[in-house]
Design a protein that fits this description.
Layout lengths: L33 H18 L3 H9 L5 H8 L5 E3 L12 E8 L2 E8 L10 H17 L3 E5 L10 H17 L5 E5 L2 E3 L1 H7 L3 E5 L3 E3 L3 H8 L5 H5 L1 H7 L4 E3 L2 H12 L24 H11 L12 H7 L5 E4 L7 E8 L2 E8 L10 H16 L4 E7 L6 H6 L1 H13 L5 E10 H5 L10 E4 L4 E3 L6 H4 L1 H24 L4 H30 L4 H6 L4 E2 L5 H14 L15
Parallel strand pairs: 3-4, 4-5, 5-7, 6-8, 7-9, 12-13, 13-14, 14-15, 14-16, 15-17
Antiparallel strand pairs: 1-2, 2-3, 10-11, 11-12
Protein name: Biotin-dependent acyl-CoA carboxylase, carboxyltransferase subunit
Organism: Geobacter sulfurreducens (strain ATCC 51573 / DSM 12127 / PCA)
InterPro entries: AccD/PCCB (IPR051047), AcCoA_carboxyl_beta (IPR034733), ClpP/crotonase-like_dom_sf (IPR029045), COA_CT_C (IPR011763), COA_CT_N (IPR011762)
């Protein structure tokens, strides 16, 4: 006897059958009519996006290690979503996209998510309009946006309607850019418009085992004949390094929780400040660990050339050591992060000498420019931490446009209207110092550690400052070799060996003389004294007092700053 296959179902067999009555409680039931029929149809329409999906489709999502859109919403908040613009289009096609208002941590947040279990979450003209309407509402009401992207792209049977839908959504999202912040999570496999749209957002978060890009591997194969995997083409390692993705995480839950954490650092819109959070961490807490770090680094054999990880300093300054780094996989010679000082959200922009001496290249310049622009738009004060030997020189950087990238960074810094402080940790040389938030470019306050080495050039500057002495020293080498050879020959040494020995002695003498000039240059010019005398530096701060000094000054500056949208002319470049 063959057993009949059991079809999977979401219904609990022990639950009583659900029966929805469209009557008033306590009302005596009478003969039903057209009214009850209309109520039943309306109820079915409301329930359709959730209940019409077969268990097979849900299992497919779970088999691919993906959640349904409704499960993703529950990770964002335990509150019930206020679903808007429920179903549009022929056969209620709009159900492939969910749009809602969700309460996250007491804040209203506009949320959208593709429902991959319905027509692969594809976009046609109807749900493109749904997206545009949600974006416009977010901008009008001044609430942030979270997107959960999991779409096969434009719905091919809809023809140009799908492309028009995307274009309408593109336009609406661009118009609220700079008005309300947006966080985009990338799930599944997204290509074409499915990658353009989320990258219009403020931040993109991408989990492992996902893809997004201009085209998929199949198109690359057919057009270029190149075999490439989705991960190699548009996975998180690719986008994390290029900066297309601001954050890469392990899975969907991590992406959604990261989005909620990021949301806690950013304001609802460009007219208000970021959320203030009371802290039990005293503002006058001594930062002894910073002192220990610098002491161990600079007393080591490599002295003031010793690299160290600047994120340790950021951690020690922030409330309870908590900070949120953005684009951590890209251009690691610069650190961009949100943190709190005395409860106030602050943006940190720091050179990281642990990577490439903290030199600024094309990638780090653009990384800094983008972060600074966000803070400027959304009323977030910025603390710059400087420790760089300058812009990275060389053919490769010039061919990639370091002049353009460096100018983007400089422009973003000059345009800042929010409170901003520069803290010079160690090296501040040349053009990098001149374009890194000093008093002439608009800093509210410039502070420096006693370890500061502020100069037009690094040690190579001795060639210009002491050029006469260096010329005299180097000119003496030939005479020293000649005299040394004569002395050794007279003493009975063979001519070749005498010359070799004399040259070695002269080279060691020259090295010692140049080392002495290096030390003299560092002592006379590579220090904070001249900057302090000229007013380029406002004051010297001890490493153990950094949290208190920075915190008190940020609090003072923010008391006299009124959050508002940016005004004035918009510059030609961005």
């Amino acid at each position: 006897m063959s057993m009949k296959a059991i079809k999977p179902s979401l219904n609990n067999p022990f639950d009583p059958p659900e029966k929805v009555e469209f009557t008033i409680p306590g009302e005596i039931s009478r003969t039903t009519g057209p009214y009850e029929e209309a109520m039943k149809e309306g109820y079915d329409l409301i329930q359709r996006p959730i209940k019409s999906v077969s268990i097979d489709q849900i299992e497919k999502q779970h088999f691919k290690k993906r959640m349904t859109v409704w499960e993703r919403i529950k990770v964002l908040s335990d509150k019930e979503p206020n679903v808007l613009y429920q179903n549009w289009g022929k056969n209620l096609d709009g159900a492939s996209l969910v749009t809602a208002i969700l309460n996250i941590g007491g804040r209203d947040v506009a949320v959208y998510g593709h429902d991959f279990t319905v027509r692969a979450g594809s976009i046609d003209a109807t749900n493109g309009s749904k997206l545009a309407r949600l974006f416009n509402m977010a901008g009008e009401k001044g609430i942030p946006l979270i997107g959960m992207n999991d779409s096969a792209g434009a719905f091919v049977p809809a023809g140009v309607g799908g492309l028009d839908g995307y274009a309408e959504a593109f336009t609406a999202l661009r118009k609220i850019s700079g008005v309300v912040p947006s966080i985009m999570c990338m799930f599944g496999f997204n290509a074409g418009g499915g990658s353009y749209l989320p990258r219009q957002g403020s931040f993109v978060i991408q989990p492992a085992d996902t893809f997004f890009g201009l085209t998929g591997p199949g198109v690359v194969k057919s057009v270029l004949g190149e075999d490439i995997t989705p991960d190699e083409l548009g996975g998180p390692k690719v986008h994390g390094k290029s900066g297309v993705a601001d954050l890469t995480v392990s899975d969907e839950v991590a992406a959604l929780r990261t989005a909620v954490r990021l949301l806690s650092y950013i304001p609802d819109n460009n007219s208000v400040g970021a959320p203030f959070q009371e802290t039990s961490d005293p503002l006058n807490r001594k930062t002894w660990e910073i002192n220990t770090l610098l002491k161990k680094a600079f007393n080591s054999p490599t002295g003031f050339n010793t690299p160290f990880d600047v994120s340790i300093i950021i951690q020690q300054i922030c409330d309870h050591g908590d900070y949120f780094e953005l684009q951590p996989e890209r251009a690691k010679e610069a650190v961009t992060a949100f943190g709190r000082l005395g409860g106030q959200v602050v943006g940190f922009v720091a050179n990281n000498s642990a990577v490439a001496s903290g030199q600024i290249d094309c990638d780090s310049a653009v990384k800094i420019a983008r972060f600074v622009r966000f803070c400027n738009i959304y009323n977030i004060p910025i603390i710059f931490m400087e420790d760089t030997t300058g812009f990275l020189p060389g053919r490769e950087q010039e061919s990639r446009g370091i002049v353009q990238a460096g100018r983007s960074m400089l422009d973003a810094i000059v345009d800042v209207r929010t409170p901003r402080i520069l803290l010079i940790l160690r090296n501040a040389f040349g053009g990098a110092y001149a374009s890194y938030n000093n008093y002439p470019t608009g800093a509210d306050l410039v502070l420096a550690l006693p370890t500061t080495r502020l100069a037009v050039m690094g040690p190579a500057g001795k060639e210009f400052v002491y050029k006469d002495e260096i010329r005299k020293i180097r000119g003496a080498v030939a005479d020293m070799v000649k005299k040394g050879v004569e002395e050794r020959t007279k003493a009975g040494m063979e001519a070749g060996a005498a010359k070799k020995d004399a040259e070695k002695e002269a080279a060691e003498w020259l090295k010692g003389q140049e080392a002495a000039l290096n030390q003299r240059y560092e002592k006379e010019l590579m220090n904070p004294k001249e900057g302090l005398a000229l007013g380029s530096i406002s004051s010297i701060v001890m490493p153990t007092d950094l949290r208190q000094v920075l915190g008190e000054n940020i609090a003072f500056l923010m008391r006299h700053y009124k959050p508002s949208p940016m005004c004035g002319p918009q510059r030609e470049f961005h």
